[in-house]
Design a protein that fits this description.
By secondary structure, this protein is an alpha/beta fold. It is 44% helix and 15% strand. It has a single domain, classed as Aminopeptidase, CATH 3.40.630.40. β2 and β3 form a beta hairpin. About 6% of the residues have low confidence. It binds zinc ion.
């Protein structure tokens, strides 16, 4: 295939994931669970509430910064299926999707943040178990279901070209999702004792069904008594929101410097 044509294809694939560096970045904030689905509940702390409170605090920070344009999938205690969350993100044409959660585990000493994105590697069993719990509020459990139909602008192109575009978009999305997880992990400064910012890959329904770079953040373990207490406190929630905000700024800087933007 001629080099110019290949370059145009790469530009097409990347610009549909990342429209323009001058426009504000559309960030879809997704507070996990809500309504009848409270998520994990330990020590009187409800996951759905913590997720919403942190999302609202992060939303405030992002609204006051012209570089970002945030949108919440829910801004109150209502039920929302995973399909609806992904649909909102895709309809809003988000540039980044962040789903906020709090974790639970049988060992109550386990604590710390975990940041997930989806790539094409087979997930380990522990992660599959966590994903099955977070995926409960969906009709489908299609773990490796990438939304390959999102090359909508490719109408009129032949199937070979469409398939190349889909591969390019998929690879680009994995790369950006991984970079986003790294940026968020680097800036996690919530508590010295909860610096465990593991970056893992997992087939969470909600991040595998959006067409933009996506991360799911397990902000801490509610099964750990001290972490549950922290997560309930407004000061700690503010620290989390601020860390995520700094991580998003770092990610934006990375994108601005990315050579792929020369193709815009
Ligand atoms: Zn959850």
């Amino acid at each position: 295939m001629p080099i110019l044509f290949v370059s145009l294809l790469i530009a097409f694939a990347c610009t549909s994931l990342w429209a323009s560096t001058s426009a504000p970045i559309q960030i879809i904030l997704d507070p996990g669970h809500g309504g009848s689905d409270q998520g994990a509940v330990y020590f009187g702390v409800k996951e759905s509430k913590i997720n919403l409170k942190v999302a609202l605090l992060l939303n405030e920070l992002l609204i006051s910064d012209k570089r970002f344009s945030p949108h919440l999938t829910r801004n109150k205690d209502v039920s929302l299926s995973l399909e609806e969350r992904a649909e909102i993100a895709n309809l809003k044409k988000g540039d980044i999707f962040l789903s906020l959660h709090a974790n639970a585990y049988e060992k109550d000493s386990t604590k710390g943040v975990e940041i997930y994105f989806q790539n094409q590697l087979p997930p380990d069993e522990e992660v599959l178990f966590l994903a099955s719990k977070e995926n409960e509020n969906t009709k489908k459990h299609n773990y490796l279901n990438w939304p390959l139909g999102f090359v909508n602008d490719a109408k009129g192109l032949n199937s070979e070209v469409t398939s190349i575009l889909q591969d390019l978009q998929l690879n680009s999305r994995i790369r950006y999702s991984s970079q986003l997880a790294e940026s968020l992990g680097e800036h996690w400064q919530v508590s010295k004792r909860s610096e465990r910012h593991l970056i893992k890959q997992a087939p969470f329904h909600v991040i595998s069904n959006v067409s933009m770079p996506a991360n799911l953040i397990e902000m801490g373990y509610l099964t750990n008594k001290s972490e549950a207490k922290n997560l309930k406190s407004k000061t700690y929630q503010k620290k989390i929101a601020n860390s995520l905000y700094l991580g998003l700024i770092n990610y934006k800087d990375y994108i601005d410097k990315s050579p792929l933007n020369d193709l815009d």
